Amino acid sequence: MTTKKTLKRIIDVAAGREKADLAIINANVVDVFNHSIIKNAAVLVANGVIAGVRTEGELCADQIIDAKGEYVMPGFINGHVHIESSHLCPEMFASAVVPHGTTTVIADPHEICNVCGVEGLDYFYKATENIPLSVFFMVPSCVPATPFEHAGAVLGAKEIEKCINLDRVLGLGELMNYVGTSLGDDEILDKIMVANKAGKPIDGHSPNIHGETLDAYVAAGPFTDHECATPEELRERTSRGMYVLLRQGSACHDTERLAKGVDDYNARLCMFCTDDRQPNSIYKEGDIDNNIRLGVKGGINEITAIQIATINAATAHHLTDRGAIAPGKRADIVIAPSLEYPLPSKVIINGKLVAENGKYLEEVKPYIPKSVSGKVNIGDFSKDKLKLKINGNKARVIGVIPGSVVTKNTIESVCTDNDGYFMYSPDKDVAKIAVIERHNGLGNIGVGLIGGYGIKKGAIALSIAHDSHNFITVGVSDDEMYLAVKELERIGGGIAVVQNGKVIASLKHEIAGLLSAELNVKQMMEELDKIHKLAIDKLGVSKDVDPLMTLCFMALPVIPELKITDMGLFDVSAFSFTSVDV
Amino acid sequence: MTTKKTLKRIIDVAAGREKADLAIINANVVDVFNHSIIKNAAVLVANGVIAGVRTEGELCADQIIDAKGEYVMPGFINGHVHIESSHLCPEMFASAVVPHGTTTVIADPHEICNVCGVEGLDYFYKATENIPLSVFFMVPSCVPATPFEHAGAVLGAKEIEKCINLDRVLGLGELMNYVGTSLGDDEILDKIMVANKAGKPIDGHSPNIHGETLDAYVAAGPFTDHECATPEELRERTSRGMYVLLRQGSACHDTERLAKGVDDYNARLCMFCTDDRQPNSIYKEGDIDNNIRLGVKGGINEITAIQIATINAATAHHLTDRGAIAPGKRADIVIAPSLEYPLPSKVIINGKLVAENGKYLEEVKPYIPKSVSGKVNIGDFSKDKLKLKINGNKARVIGVIPGSVVTKNTIESVCTDNDGYFMYSPDKDVAKIAVIERHNGLGNIGVGLIGGYGIKKGAIALSIAHDSHNFITVGVSDDEMYLAVKELERIGGGIAVVQNGKVIASLKHEIAGLLSAELNVKQMMEELDKIHKLAIDKLGVSKDVDPLMTLCFMALPVIPELKITDMGLFDVSAFSFTSVDV
Predict the structure, then answer these.
(1) What is the mean pLDDT of residues A194-200?
(2) CA A455 to CA A460: how far, in whole Å?
(3) Complex prediction ipTM
(4) Which residue in the set B11, B241, B326 is minimally distant from A216, CB to CB?
C-alpha cells in the first residue's frame, strides 16, 4: 500500500507543485473511459503511479521518454492463464510476455497444484512477489480434476480456505466440473461457500451449456467463462452477467470468432485471455497484443479492443488501481505504434521501463524452493509392469484424431507374443501407452494401446499429462519405454526420447516436472522443436499429430472418448473404467 | 450470506428441478448487459434470488405475478443520498422511495453524524438492518465540516477506522474539502489512509475544479463526483476514471443538463443520485425514477438510463449481488409500464412484493435509540445573549440572494436603541439572525444581521442548519427569537414559528433534531408546507425565498460570501471571522 508520504508526493506532482519522476511526452494517450485519443499529450508519473495527463503547460520531470507520436495505453491484463503451459517458471514467463505489453495476469496454477498442492500456489506466489509482472491468482478448484486418477495432492474446501484470503488471491479458480456444478454437487458447493465467505469471485468454465443448465451454473456462482465458442454463446453468457474471456491459446483460437458477438454494449463484459499457450505461440505471435490484433480483425473497434485488454479486466476483478492512464492508477504503460496490433516499443511497469522493442530489460532470477523440485516418485516401477496381456487378437485402442484432444474408442486387431502379451508390429499403427503414478510412489500403472500416433521406433516419456501430470509414455518396446521413464526419473521430470535403446533427447523440467527455470521462451521453443523433429524424423510419429501435446491430453479423463490414467483405461462416454480386452 | 442449503435450492430451481417461489410472467425483461429487451419472458425467483429468465418451456412456481407486458427491470440504486434531507427517519424514508423503485441506496449520514458522531451512523445502521430497502453507508469524512463552528462530534481518522470495516459500510464519504484534498492536507490524508488500508473507496465532491487541481484530487483517491455541473465537466471527470453521479436533488437539478455529456462509452461511469431531496420533491416527483425520466429527456437512451440506475452503480460499488435480472442476483425488481419514466406498478425486494402502484406494503416500525434522541443542550442560553451592539449606524449584513444558498456581504444602515443595540425597523428588510450551539451546552452564540429575508413579524427557529446543525433563529424581536429557541428546546429539536409572542407552529424532529419518526413523507410535506405558508403569510417572509431552506444554509461557512456560525460572523471569501461592525 502506498504510504501517506508517497501519496502526498503523488498529489503534489499531480498538482504541479513537484517535479515528476517521469514524463512521457508526444503521446497519443488512449482514454479507455471516454473511448477516445488524447492527442499530443504528456503522461506524468510519480512513485510508480500516474499523476496526470497534460495537454498544455510546462512539464518538470527527472526523466523524459519521447513517445514520438505513438499510442500510450494501459498495460494489458491477461484474464486467465495457466502459466505452466509455457513450460517456463513464472519469472521466465514474465520475461516472455512483458515485452508484449502484458503487465498483469490472473493465473490459475491448476497444473502445479495438481502436483504440489497448496505448496504449488505458495511457490508461484513467492516467485512472483518481486517481479515486474503483476501476478494474481485464482485458487484451483479441481485438484484432482477427477476421481479417476491420482494427482500429487488434493485441494478440498479446507485447503482452499487456507489460501483464499491471501492478498493476491482474487478468488476460486475455474469450476471445470460444470456438470457437477449445475447439479449442485455437494463437494463443489463446499468450495463455492469458501469463496462466498471470503467475498471473492469464482471463475467459470462452461463449454457448450445453455438455457436452464447455464442458469444453474451461473446461479451457483461463476462469473466468467473462457470456454465460450460462438458469438451466440457469448451473448447468452453476457446476458446473464457473465464476463466472457476471448481466448487465444495455442490450441483454442476463439478470439476472432467471438469478436462477431461483441458490440458497444456487451463489450464491457469482455476480457482477453490466453488460457494455455505454448512457448512457440508466445514467441512467434505474442500474448494479449495478439488477442487485440485478432479481436480487431474479427470486427472489434480498436479502442474497444484496448478497453477489453485493460480496464474491463481490471473492473471485473476489482483491480481499481490499474487499467487506465488516469491519476492514481499504477503506471503500467504500453507505448506502441499501432492500436490494432499493439506490439510495444516500450513497456513500463510501476513507472519503470522494463521492456523495449521486444527485449526484456530486467534480470531473471528464478526462485526454486525444495517443495517443488524433485517431485518424482514412481515407487516400485519395473519393466514387467509395462506388460500387457491380451485375450484374443483384438483389443480396445485409443484412436488419435489428428489436431484434436478428443479420441475415438476403437477396436483393432493386434499381435501378441507366445505368452499372449501385446507386441508392437511394424505393419500396424498401434503402440503401447502407459501412465505411471509419479507423485506418491503408489506403484500405480495403467497400460493400454494407442492407434494413429504413428510411432515406429523407440519411446517417448513425459511428466506433463493433464491434469494429474503423472508420467505418460508411448513406445514400441517395453525396454525403451522403461528407459524413457527412468530417464525422466533421473532428470526430475520433463521430456525424454529414446531410440535404438538410447536416450537421444532429454529436456529437464526440474520444477514439479512441469517447468524449467533454466530456459527462456526462445530456448524452450527451440528445445521443444528439436524434440518434435526427433519424434517425427527418428521415431516416425505421424506428421499430422503434435507428438507432445497429443500425449499431454491422453490422460485427461474428462475429454471423450477413450483415455488412460494411472488407474487404467477410461471410457469417458460411459464415465467408467474399461478394459483393453474386448 | 446465502447458506449452502439455500444455494443448492436456487441452483435446483434454476435448473428446473425444483419449483420456484415466484414467477413473473408476461415480462419484457430489461437486459442491462446486452442492452436489450427480452420479450415475453418469465423471471423465476427462489429464496429471494433470481434463478433465471425463461422464454420457453413450462413454469412451476408457488406464486405468479403477471407483468401484463410491462417492463421488468432491476431495482434502482441511489448512488449518493443524505437521508436526513427528507426529514424522515430511515424506515419512513424507505417507505417513501421504495414505491418509486429505489431498492438500494448508498447513504452518507453526514448530518446525523455531525450531531451524534459515530452513534449517528450506528443508529442508521441498526435502523436499516431489517427494512426492505438495502442501505449501504459511506462514513462521513467531514465532521465537523469546518473548524469555524461547533458540531456535536468530531469524526477523525481514529473514529472512521472504527466503522470503516463494517459490512454495509462501503467506504469513506465525500471529501468535501476539495481544496484541502488537492493540497494534500495532513488530516485529510490520514482519513484517506484509513480507507486505503481497509481497501474501500472514497466518494468525491469536486465542484468546478479542473486540470491539474482535478488531477491532484483524483490522485488523492476520490472515485466519484456528484457535484459535476456541465457536460464538459462530466467528460473531464470520466476521462480520469471518476464515476459521475447525475444528481437530481431538491435544489440541484443536474440530470438533464449532464445527460448531454453522456455517450454509449462513458455511460458505464455514470450513476444517478439525489444527494439532498426534500419530502415535497420525493412525494411529487419521485426518486431515481425521476432521474431516469430526466436523463432520457436530456437525451440518454432509455435502456442506457436503466443501466445507469442499476448495474452501473452496482459495478461501481462492487455490489456484485445486484443490479441486473440475471441468475444469482438479488430479486430486487421493478415492474413498470414505461422505460422513460418508470413509475413502478410493482416493486419486489429480495423476492417479496413490497410496493404496488405507489403504495408501500410493509409496516414501518421506527427504531429510536436513546443515543439520538434529546440531542438538544443549549447550556446557559438567555435572552440577553441575543443582544447585538452596533457601533454607528451601519452594519455588515448577510444579503440573501433569492433561490441561492450563496449570500452577499453587504453593508446596510441599521437602527439601534438608546443603548446602541440593534433594533428591527419595519421600513428596512434587515432582521436579526443567531446561531446557538446546541450539542454540548457550550453557551456559544453568534449574532448577526440578515437582509432580504423579508421577515416582518415574530421569529423562526430551526435545529437543521448545515452542517453542524446548531439552532438557527431569525426574528424581529429578541423576545420572540428567545421563545422560538425555547420551544425548539422543549420539543427536542425541529422547527418553531412564533408570532405576536406566541408559538404558532411547532414541528418536532425528535431524532437528533433532524428527523421525525412519526410522520410519513406526505405528512411531513404537508407540515412543512403549512410552516412555509405561515412564514410567508403571517411573518411576512419574502415569497422569493424558501423560508426554511434559506436558513438551513446560513450557517454553512464554506459557501460564499457571508455566513454565521455559533462562533460568529464568517467571511467566506476571506476565510476568516469578521464583525457586524464596519
Answers:
(1) 97
(2) 9
(3) 0.95
(4) B11
